[in-house]
Every structure is written in structure tokens, then in C-alpha cells.
């Protein structure tokens, strides 16, 4: 029935008031409930924009109640259908309904079911984009959803689709203008502070840094630039008293640099490389990560710098090679089968790696091997013949 309505609904205007209540009625039957939910998704996705005004409020109310059900498949289908309904009929759904939906969504945002959390966050984003001017919606997101999102980001299990959805959530939230950029940034950075039960996992710190980067880019160039200057200021502080803060600053700079060219920020590469002198291993590792990712944002400027430093800074060689490994690992292969690294850069990198493959330090040899392995994934035609020599 839903396929018929979705396909021929513009010619069935008289029949819709009698057909649609039948589908609504099937939502009340436990056996047909799931199929009825999917049926409304089919109708909502129809390019004909079928008139659902006679049943829309009832459907939204029923779907919202389904989010509390134990049936996982039903909750999953409900989230998808609500998303489609908001996209197509968002202006016809009342603000009180949105508040109720957001309150229910907040209960689904946890690391207990990351796929469900991702779907819930995606629906939140859809609501914020569609109803960003509605004050009640912004307030509900701020009070109900944001605290759960900030709890989820601290999870060591967060990854994949859920992490991507969380990044989109923070970007949509700052663009909705219901909460200031500064407030969101401070909230994110505050979550990185060690709690009484101990510090955060490495994965959680990377998740926070990625969300900070996406937040900065969504807020615009001015906010992004001021944040980078703030992070540089943290790095210029005494690292022995601000190790956790400096660690987070380096990760954030790396994530921002991977997404945006930071060459306008003078000497940022030298500020980062200064952290190689830190007495803390996690700071040195984060600095290596940051330098490599900053180079990804502008290969023509920063890659020659890294290669030159590897040749001339023997004490920092191990960390610099890790930066180079990060550059290589981040190179995507486009549809023509070519990586973003130019042929001349590949030749220089291979020459440098082969020059250090017999280093006395086992750590250096291991990183060289890892770099060669990653190059083999993006440029096998250049590496494999060289290995045969």
C-alpha cells in the first residue's frame, strides 16, 4: 500500500483520507507495527510530497513512543522514519513534538549501542538543520542531548559511524546558533580533563580532538584562527605543568591541520616540533602526530620541512619518521588510482627511507618499514621494483 501511495499518491487525493488511517491503525498492532513504520518511511521519501496532514501528528506521536520500546529493530526503523518525516514535513511538526522526540533521543545516545547512538545523533542533526530557528528545539538539544553527547565522547569504544555522527552533531549545533562556539569549545576541552577515576583513553582524546576540529571549521575562519592561536599559546606554556593540556592542544592542532591549511599561522611547525623536547612520551607522540597531520593540509610547504628535518636532526629522527608515516597514511587514492603525493615527492621519500633502513636504532628501522608498507598501498608500482634491487 505504501508503494502505491508513494508512486501514485498525486492521483489518489480522494482516497488518502481513508487509506492513511489504515496504516496508522497497523502501527498499533504488535505484529504489523514494524512494517507499518517502514511503510511511512517509503511515503515520506516519495518525491510527490504526499499530504499526510490528516495523520501526521498521530504518526509522530506513535513513533516517538516506539523509541522507548525494547525491540531494537523497531527503534532502528523508527529513527529512520522520523528522519524522513522531519526532512519532508518538518515545518508541519509542532515544537512540542520536537521537544519530546529530542528527550527520547537523549536516552539512546550511549556507548551501549553505538549504531543506535549514531542514528539518534543523525536525527538530532536533521532536526537542528530543519528547525534551527525554533528556540524550544535549541533549548531541548542543549539541555537533553548535549550532556549525553559529551558523555559519549569520553568513551573508549567510540569510533566509526557513531564518531562521524557526533562530529556532525557538534557542527550542526554551532551552526544552529542556539549555543555559542566558545561554550561548545570549552565544554569539549573540559571533557578531556582527567577525572577522579583516572585519565581518558587514547581513543577518547582523539575523538575529542576530531570534534574540536570539526567544530572550529563549522564556526568559520575567524573562530578557527582564534582557536589555533589559543592552542599555540598552550604549547608555549611550561609543558611540565600543563602536560595534559598540551597533549590535547597538539592533537587538536593536528586534526585541524589535516582539514585546513595552517600555513598562514607563522612558524606553527617549529612550535609543534619544540614539543619533541618534552619529558613526557605522550606529548612527544602527540607532537609527531600533529606535525604529520599539519603537513597533510599543505604538502608543498610542510613535507619538504619534515624530510629536511629527518636528514638533519638525528636525535628527533624517530619522531619525525612517525610524522612522515602519518603523512603517507593519510594519502587517499582517487578514482583514477593516483595518490595525492606527487611522483617527485614519492621519489624523495623512498630515497630517504632506503637511506635510513639500515639505521643502528631498531625503532627507526621499524618505522621505516611501516612507512614503506604504507607506500606500497598507494604506490605499489614505484615501491615494489625498488625493493627488488
UniProtKB/TrEMBL annotation:
<protein>
    <recommendedName>
        <fullName>TATA-binding protein interacting (TIP20) domain-containing protein</fullName>
    </recommendedName>
</protein>
<dbReference type="InterPro" id="IPR039852">
    <property type="entry name" value="CAND1/CAND2"/>
</dbReference>
<keyword id="KW-0677">Repeat</keyword>
<dbReference type="InterPro" id="IPR011989">
    <property type="entry name" value="ARM-like"/>
</dbReference>
<dbReference type="GO" id="GO:0010265">
    <property type="term" value="P:SCF complex assembly"/>
</dbReference>
<dbReference type="InterPro" id="IPR016024">
    <property type="entry name" value="ARM-type_fold"/>
</dbReference>
<keyword id="KW-0833">Ubl conjugation pathway</keyword>
